Amino acid sequence: MENLIKQRKRMNPVRMELSRELNKKMITSLCKNINVEKEHVFLSRVPLDMSFVFEIQSYLKGTGQEKLFYQRRTPRMTPQLNDKERLIPQITKKDVLLSYPFESIRPFINLLYEAAKDDSVVSIKMTLYRLANKSQIVDALIEAAENGKEVVVLVELRARFDEESNIEYSRKLEEAGCRVIYGLNGYKVHSKLCLISRKTAGGVSYITQIGTGNYNEKTSALYTDLSLITADQNIGKEAAEVFAALLKGETVERSELLLVAPKCLQNRVLDMIDEEIEHVKKGEPGYVGIKINSLTDKVIINKLVEASQAGVKIEMIVRGICCLLPEVPGYTENIQIVSIVGRFLEHSRIYRFGTKEREKVYIASADFMTRNTVRRVEVAAPVLDKKLRERLDCMFETMMNDDEKGKRLTAKGKYTDRALHDTRLNSQELFYAEAYGNAEKITATDKKA
After folding, report:
1. Which of 79, 151, 261, 266 could form a disulfide with 178 if both were Cys (CB 3.0 to 4.6 A apart)?
2. Other Cβ atoms closer than 10 A to 366
3. Beta-strand runs (E) in 114-213
């Protein structure tokens, strides 16, 4: 990877961008000199380097130009945990779901530091893909290793544009005594998985964290992501099997609770869509709800079309690339697709199968793209706690009804505005308002105490 990074700096250009029009002779000469075809020359009316915008932002702050800026928002502490008490005992009693950027990543970081010092903790295993500068995650893992814990970290060196950073962090971890592995041959490890193993009176017990986004303090305040922390021992055992396979350079062949790509995710999703088709055939309602960044997996797309034709109601929130046209009579008329592009990057993935009384809900690191479903190691985790499922259902339904930043994809491939409410609904602002309200309740309770 280090050699590839060095080569990258000397690689041939793949395109040339111009900020103003040049005569054909000049363009021909430039193309010849840098070995670029003329069809790869583009005229751009926007500045080629946008880094100066940050300087403008800094300059304008405090100059009475507040209308140019978003209202200040910072992640709040979750009401699910008491940060003044030890976290491990709290998590062993109930599952916790963190929703970024509305809720802070701090409880998870605190959990790692607590695990680093806890005498009952014997090991921490983790997959790392993209990290923040001066990562507290890495600091916590190093502290755990220095305290005698077994720390196993899979660092994916092929995280595009983060290769150098990941190499530097991997060396830092190795120097501290962590065991570092570097992914699998043929498969990029994109899962967001952390397993804390503890030695208790009842034997080995697990605390597992599964996320939709990277272990990155910076992006956790900019991207919408979900993080499930659970002491469910069956999920922990399957997470342990995932790490055991990775340590052997293999992929998981079978799983019961977790959906683990490349071999146990796409097929399981297809099976659950088939179950909804069967319910409709029996005269019962069928439902599929999906929130992802991109939809390009042709196998899943074909199955969604089949489900729509059978009468399954399908709701999808697809922020970016979408290779499925909804609302086409006779094909996808039962599919509704919304894209939300707001202040924060929509990055969380949610899979929902079945009606309320029998639904299965997962959060995942995988989009429905072939590169994710069959070419990477990805993990989706079931949300087993009823209250957390209800919370995710509410969030999903709110986003489907977002008519401020949410646009409806039509059968013609166009995104259109919607007017569903007298006062337009901005789901991200609503979630932040809820987080601020919960934080105020915590503060009020602390004052009474």
Report:
1. 151
2. 29
3. 121-128, 150-155, 179-181, 188-189, 193-200, 203-211
Among the listed ranges 16-25, 212-221, 333-342, 397-406, which one has the minimum average pLDDT value? 16-25
Give the model's confidence band at 4: pLDDT under 50 very low, under 70 low, under 90 confident, else very high: low
Residue burial 110-123, b: 16+ Cβ < 10 Å; e: rest? bbbbbbbebeebeb
Cβ–Cβ under 8 Å, residues 353 and 316: no
**Which pTM value belongs to this model?**
0.90
- For residue 254, CA distances in Å to 18, 186, 303, 336, 369 come to 52, 19, 22, 32, 21
Ordered domains of the chain (ranges, CATH): 2-67 (no CATH), 87-250 (3.30.870.10), 260-426 (3.30.870.10)
Tokens of 247: 């340590």
Determine whether 145 is exposed, middle or buried from the number of CB atoms within 10 Å of its CB (0-12, 13-18, 19+). buried
Residue 290 to residue 359: CA distance in whole angstroms: 13
Is a pLDDT exceeding 90 seen at residue 48?
A: no
Residue 421 appears among annotated catalytic residues:
no
What does the alpha-carbon distance between residue 332 and residue 310 come to, in Å, rounded to a whole number? Answer: 10
**What is the residue whose two structure tokens read 């075809």?**
37
